[in-house]
Structure formats: C-alpha cells, structure tokens
Amino acid sequence: MRKSYNEGDVFLIPMKDGRFAVCQVVCPLKGRLKKAFSFGVMSIQRDETESMGDGDVLFYSFGNRRSNVIFTSPVNIRNGMWKIVGNTPLTPEKEELRVFQCAGHLYCGDEYIRNLQIKEYSQFNTLGVAGFELVQNHLLEMEQG
Q: Residue 60: what pLDDT?
C-alpha cells in the first residue's frame, strides 16, 4: 500500500546497527523533482519507543562539506519501511532548510526562485539524491547535539 507523506511528518529509519533515526520531512517534493524528498535527523535512538521530541537537526560530513539535510528517494517512506509516527510543524530554523540549489538553480521546496551565480552554489544545500546505503552511512556519522 502506497503511503502519502507531508512536510513536518516525523518518521523512523531503522539503522544497520540496530538503532533508529528520528527524522522529519522538510521538503516533500511533489512537482518536477518528485523523485526525491529531503529530511533532517532530529535524534538517533536505541529503540523506536523513546521520545519523539522536536529537536534541532543533526549535522553530518560528506567529503569536505557539512550538511544537516539529506535528499533521497521517497520509496521507503511510501512503502512503509520508514514508519511515519507523527507530524510536527517545521520550526523557523527548519523552514530555512527548504531552500536548496539544484544544477545552479535556487528553489524553496517545489518553487523555483532564480538562477545562481557559480560563487553562490556553496551557500545553499545541494539537491544530491543519496542512495539508501549512503543514507545509512550519513546516519552513522551523525553525532548527538
């Protein structure tokens, strides 16, 4: 059964080491970028019954970049492998994570904003879709606040 997902949905990703990542949908891209969505990780927990608090998002490193939002395919959230456990409105800080660049173009969610100059690229999160194995690697690199 195909599940829908929305901005602010809180969901759990089972990690390879037995823990769970508590995540929140930032951009449920539905337009021409619908083959991806972005989320932030609020905490890494030992089990799925612990508190689902609305914390800040955690950072991870990828190469020489540091980020706090992950873009990936919505397949696992749609098929229920990543279980949605609630919905919390995005905080103003998380709203800012909705802005990203893709191929030199600036977006806020599905809304196109403008072309970027090359020197501006590094100022924004980049829509680079991570495969599920890379998502797992990013989760293992995250440190609690």
A: 86
Token pair, residue 122, equals: 């590094």
Which pTM value belongs to this model? 0.90
pLDDT in tens, 27-48: 999 888 889 999 999 988 888 7
- Distance, in Å, from the CA atom of 47 to the CA atom of 19, rounded to the nearest integer, reads 6
Q: Give me the torsion for CA of 66, 114, 118, 92, rounded to 10°.
A: -20
Q: Which residues pair with 72 in a beta bridge?
A: 37, 130
How many other β-carbons are positioned within 10 Å of the β-carbon of residue 85?
Answer: 14
Is-contact 30 23, C-beta < 8 A? no
Mean pLDDT over each residue of the chain, to the nearest integer: 88
β-partners of residue 23 are 11, 41
The residue type at 17: D
